[in-house]
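Hi F.,

I've been meaning to write this up properly since the lab meeting, where we talked about keeping a consistent format for the predictions we share between groups. The idea is simple: the sequence comes first, exactly as it goes in, then the structure tokens exactly as they come out, then a line or two of notes. No screenshots and no reformatting. I'm using this chain as the first example so we have something concrete to point to.
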Amino acid sequence: MPIRLLSLPAKDLQYCVNLMNVGDLIAFSLCSKQTKNLVKSSNLEEIRTTARFGENDCIEFEILACQRRFNREIHKQITFYLHKNQWMRVDRGNGKEQWKFTRSYCIAHLMSILKTSMITYLDLIDLHQIPYLNTVKQIFPKFYALSIGRDCSDELTKMAILKLGPIAEEVEVNKIPVINDISQFLTLNLNFLLFKDEQRPLKLKLSDLLILNVRSIASVNTDITERELNRFLKLWMKGNHSFYCPENIELISNNAFKMDQVFKGIQYETVLETIHSD
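Output, unedited:
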């Protein structure tokens, strides 16, 4: 005999909600305002949210959520495929389903039941149209980390760093754009900036290192002379750099730096990294 779930006493109803798996909880939350509030008060917690933007105006919105049941944590990944003018498709692990909700409604609803205003990762995969960045920023005005894919155009990569970088904590650039001045990317007040292009080197000068305004910067393919690095180290050691932002600078060169030239005239000691085992 069917049971009218919402007719149960509040305590029993909440117990039933807490027994639902993550996918069912999200589906249940879309039934009504009451079910949405029930799910918001449940033990559903967000671990990671990722939004991927491609050129076909489809957002792949991935949620990794955690639910506590019987002193256990149950992790579940769910992916939503959101086209602008179509119903959304959902993959809860058993094949794709079609749910009759719009993209804007779905995103606002999911952020609400996960009790967060900021997504974890924003990935730009294959974009070339610069005006579309305004759409990206409008849909997700807050996010922690930005990743710009290698297949994005040079101009879009540049504009994405300048337009979206200031509202991120971390930025990963997978293709160095062909531009004359890289310094404009180095003053964005980020926690972490990674240049990850193994084909195009990141061309740096001494003046670039002196204006860095990121807490940690890394480059896997760097074009800078040992002389410039040596001058930077000497200037940094001589001056009062309490104002200087970076806590860590990691620069890798395909040609390998000659460390005796980088540290020329500087007393230093090579320390081997020790791995501690528990």
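Notes:
Residues 226-238 form the longest helix (13 residues).
The chain is about 30% helix and 25% strand.

If this format works for you, I'll send the rest the same way.

G.
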